[in-house]
Design a protein that fits this description.
Order of helices and strands: EEHHHHH
Structural class: mainly alpha
Helix content: 55-70%
Number of strands: 2
Low-confidence stretches: none
Strand content: under 5%
Strand order of the largest sheet: 1-2
Distance between the termini: 56 Å
Number of helices: 5
Oligomer: single chain
Radius of gyration: 23 Å
Mean pLDDT: 90
């Protein structure tokens, strides 16, 4: 599926070897890319696990962590925008997989930031579960 390739470029370092996929390897990749599970899986971000467990945190920690997450998202949005600019300069048009991927990340970060701001507004109304099954 992978074989040693022929390269005319000088080695970039010691013992550098170039590999390329064979026709059989490209066919196997094409088959794998048609699998449904590429489109039906859900990520479970660690931050959501933290939110689920946050009711056990010390007073004030929730608000502090929400602020940290918002700062992180702002930095990531800025970083992804820089990445997007460099991709656009390289590919020369906005209709490319890399552009679509980075713009999705930016939109996901923006959506989470909007959600965090909502949580911050609702924080004074936060309370324990009224009918906790876990307490039985």
């Amino acid at each position: 599926m992978i074989c040693a390739g022929e390269s005319q470029d000088p080695a970039a370092g010691p013992d550098r070897r170039v590999f390329e996929t064979t026709a059989k390897g490209r066919h196997a990749l094409s088959d794998a890319l048609e699998r449904e599970d590429w489109t039906t899986q859900r990520d479970r971000p660690p931050f959501l696990t933290w939110v689920a467990l946050s009711w056990q945190a010390r007073p004030g920690v929730f608000k502090k962590q929400i602020a940290r997450r918002a700062e992180f998202l702002e930095r990531e949005i800025a970083r992804e925008k820089e990445t997007l600019d460099s991709i656009l300069a390289e590919v020369g048009h906005p209709h490319h997989e890399a552009v679509w991927m980075v713009t999705l990340m930016i939109e996901q970060f923006r959506t989470e930031l909007k959600w965090l701001r909502k949580i911050e507004r609702e924080l004074p109304r936060r309370s324990s579960a009224k009918n906790p099954d876990y307490a039985k």
